[in-house]
Design goal:
This protein has five helices and four strands. With 215 residues, the chain is an alpha+beta fold. The chain has one domain. The radius of gyration is 27 Å and the shape is globular.
């Protein structure tokens, strides 16, 4: 092959090879911070504190009565099945009836649906900082995060020895056979290892604010 032909052939081969473009690195989405609280009037703060307390009382009354009945009927096994099947529908029904979104959330949830969002985590961190000693009283918190949403948060503690049958130390407070049932219903369960008086989670109630109480 003549030298000129060889150079032409090599040039043709080089040009004929498709150039591979570098694969762009996936862009990382910046984690959005929770919205900053909006200043509330004393009248609005008092109003939503009262509304929140009313809903917490009503929710505790309904769920506690149903749970006590389930425990009496069939112990932890029946109570766990009740919570798994009925707890969220009860909260949804109360939410719809009261025009609010009612949740019971935790940093160690039994049901993944009860995990905290960013704002709830920040409020719960404040509650945990105030939870020592275990018998310390922790006041509820009211926050307005935008023009239309007001949130009410109230701590939930392990207040009775009965709570430890499902949320205490496995093998000591929680029978191993009962925990096997809990794990079957909640494979990702984190809600164990508590002692009486411990902070278990909190009520998270969000209201749609339609008007201000101030003139």
């Amino acid at each position: 092959m003549k030298p000129g032909l060889m150079i032409l052939t090599l040039a043709f081969v080089a040009c004929g090879q498709p150039q591979q473009k570098p694969t762009p690195e996936p862009q990382k989405q910046a984690k959005q911070s929770p919205p900053k609280p909006v200043a509330m009037s004393p009248e609005d703060t008092a109003k939503y504190l009262e509304l929140g307390e009313e809903l917490v009382s009503a929710t505790k009354q309904v769920i506690s009565a149903a749970l006590a009945g389930a425990m009496e009927k069939g112990g932890v096994k029946h109570a766990a099945q009740f919570c798994n099947a009925a707890a969220h529908p009860i909260l949804d029904s109360l939410s719809k009836a009261r025009g609010a979104k009612i949740r019971r959330v935790s940093d160690k949830p039994r049901n993944p649906k009860d995990a905290m969002d960013d704002e709830e985590q920040k409020v719960f961190a404040l509650f945990k900082a105030k939870a020592q000693p275990p018998d310390a009283e922790i006041a509820p918190v009211v926050l307005q995060t935008n023009d239309s949403t007001v949130s009410f948060y109230k701590p939930i503690k392990i207040s009775m020895p009965t709570c430890l049958k499902c949320h205490g130390e496995v093998g000591k407070d929680v029978k191993r056979e009962d925990y096997a049932i809990l794990k079957r219903l909640y494979p990702n369960d984190e809600a164990i290892g508590y002692k009486q008086g411990d902070l278990r989670g909190m009520f998270s109630i969000r209201f749609v604010k339609t008007h201000s109480t101030t003139n």
